[in-house]
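User: I've been going back and forth on whether these two constructs are worth ordering. Before I decide, could you fold them both?

Assistant: Sure. I'll take them in the order you sent them. The first construct and its structure tokens:
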Amino acid sequence: MRSISQTPIKLKAEGIGEAEGELIRFLSPRTVDALVRSLPVEGRAALMSGGIYFSIPLSLGAEKARRRAEKGTIAYWPMGRAICIFYEDAEPYSPISKIGRVKAGLEIFRRVKTGTKITIEKT
């Protein structure tokens, strides 16, 4: 069932595997709307404490900014103009805007190395 408030997505880590997730509009409506219009997006992974991130061609300010991320959180990081995927609870370097969550396959992100191509697309 498709909903305007939740967009199902597939997250691919090249050579490693795929995960399922969803973008959840009420978490950060402007950010999620802009990202959904930009899908698919891809980038090269960089590592951070508790997760990975990759730059995307969106420049947005913080929305409902948070300083903590729970395991499975998908977030937009305004300072890095990047999408973050957290595979464990973390306190990011600067505020993030939560935009969704990984529903299945989160463990693949623990195996991602710097430079791995990450793709997010609608399902």
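The second construct, handled the same way:
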Amino acid sequence: MEGGATLRSLVVGRLRKPHGLKGEVAVFPLTDDPEGVFVEGRAVRIVDLEGNAVAGPLEIVRARTFHREWLLAFRGHDSRTAVEGWGQTFLTASVEDLDPPAEEEVYLHDLVGFAARAPSGQALGLVTAYYEMPAGLMLEIQGPKREFLVPFRKEFVREMDREMRQMVLDLPEGL
């Protein structure tokens, strides 16, 4: 892009291994909308565990479900040897090319920096991190005196305003 701007991208899948002899790769989806993401014509990139580019941009020319995974083929990579080095890497797509989240949804990485406030309007702090725990997603809020964790669930997160990057939290007594 001009001016050195970088594209924001999201990890949408984990490449596992080649499938067959015609350049297909087995991909485990890391998106809740694989039918909308793994479509013919979509440009994607492949990155390693450190986020370094391995290949791309690549155009998806074939996509189909296969058990719990998807089989993808890319333009110009039509043999098994062309895709063999991509095992255990990740597939990314540009945020600008994906459907935006629905009105009540937000990308997890966008939560960092949201201002948290009580229903009364009192400032509670800023979201500085999120953690995927066995009981569900937890938000780390840096308050005026200390940090605290809040479950990212409807009974606690009452309102979300993506445009203003704010949320209203109804916290239990004592938190």
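Notes on the second construct follow. Residues 1-6 have pLDDT under 50 and may be disordered. The helical segments are 34-37, 80-83, 108-111.
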